[in-house]
Design a protein that fits this description.
By secondary structure, the protein is an alpha+beta fold. 41% of the residues lie in helices and 23% in strands. The protein folds into 2 domains: 103 residues, no CATH class; 230 residues, no CATH class. The strands form 4 sheets. It has a 5-stranded mixed sheet with strand order 9-8-7-10-11, sandwiched between helices. It is globular and about 75 Å long. The N and C termini lie far apart (56 Å).
Length: 345
């Protein structure tokens, strides 16, 4: 191995133990660094371009070739959204394939639109998007787990039927991992494309804060206090995690911010979007099975649409407050002038 690759591995080890001792000093749960066996080691990295490795991209940064010291020339397949100056790389082994991750110095260029929207995440629909002109869009939930459930269950049963650690067990486990990896790549590609489309159309994107860990907590309970309706909650948890909401919001966040727009997160506990009427502001607790918002004031909307409208109204008030503060020289906000021009347009 090249010297720089070994230094990267040692740097990872030092980073893991530094975080461990920091948690010990802070009185937190330390979590001793886990030993990474050969089956858990994802790969290795290099530092400076040209030091033991060199990548030559193809035309318009499509495909290319990688030369590694002690290995030789390797063809690479893929396409970068934008080129630049190559700095470092990571070689990662995943489900029988080697993947190259390049770090490039560049100035990302992404253009956004003029709309201000709010979105409500869910499992019935992946996103319900509402704009300031009473327009509504629902993004279909692809339900990757349901699409590939039969195959994954059969592969998992094949793994469970074999003696752990045997040759046949390793082959079956590799097939199961490859199947799950394909599902994960489909989900990531879908979320990237959805986030890119949203970022190209909006100047403001608002959503309520999501506590995924609490939402998907187990309902099994304890021996003394067993849970209620455990199977239904388990299935709901699987459906929620299958949509990868944290990943989706992370992608939308950085893509919207690259356009100079704002990504706003509404305080769920204080605002209570799913329980608030967007017309009169009255709050009423609803069961999860109640999918239509009905208020004595006469407002009748789908529950997700009403929730997104409450978040959008909150976001527009927040933007108005920030703009008012800027006019009087208080709290300058990054990219406020271009954003205001886009919203006015």
């Amino acid at each position: 191995m090249n010297c720089s690759a070994q230094q990267i591995t040692l740097r990872r080890l030092d980073k893991a133990f530094s975080a461990f001792f920091r948690r010990v000093r802070a009185g937190q749960t330390p979590g001793f660094p886990r030993f990474k066996s050969l089956t858990r080691m994802p790969g290795f990295g290099y530092k400076k371009h040209g030091d033991g490795w060199r990548f030559t991209p193809g035309a318009n940064w499509r495909h290319g070739t990688l030369r590694l010291q002690g290995v030789g020339l390797i063809k690479a397949r893929g396409e970068a959204r934008q080129g630049g100056t190559i700095k470092s790389c990571e070689l990662q082994h995943s489900h029988g394939d080697w993947r190259l991750s390049l770090t490039i110095e560049c100035a990302p260029v992404r253009v956004g639109g003029p709309a201000a929207v709010a979105a409500d995440w869910g499992t019935e629909h992946l996103l319900t998007i509402v704009d300031g002109h009473c327009g509504t869009e629902t993004v279909v939930n692809p339900r990757w787990w349901q699409q590939r459930k039969a195959t994954e269950v059969a592969l998992a049963q094949a793994v469970a039927a074999k003696r752990r650690g045997s040759r046949r067990w390793r082959k079956a486990a590799a097939r199961l991992a490859a199947h799950r990896g394909q599902s994960g790549r489909k989900r990531l590609d879908h979320h990237h494309q959805l986030a890119a489309r949203i970022a190209s159309e909006v100047a403001v994107f608002a959503t309520e804060a999501l506590d995924i860990k609490t939402l998907t907590a187990s309902a099994a309970g304890t021996m003394e206090a067993p849970g209620v309706d455990v199977r239904r909650q388990r299935n709901l948890n699987r459906e929620m995690l299958d949509t990868a909401p944290a990943l989706l919001m992370q992608l939308i966040t950085y893509k919207v911010q690259e356009t100079g727009g704002w990504f706003l997160t509404a305080p769920t506990k204080r605002l209570k979007p799913s329980q608030t009427c967007p017309a009169c502001g009255a709050q009423r607790k609803k069961q999860l099975s109640e999918r239509t918002h009905t208020c004595p004031c006469g407002c009748v909307l789908p529950r997700d649409v009403a929730s997104a409208q409450v978040v959008l109204d909150w976001a527009l008030r927040e933007i108005a407050g920030k703009s008012h503060a800027q006019n009087f020289g208080r709290e300058p906000t990054a990219a406020a002038s271009p954003l205001r021009n886009r919203l006015q347009a």
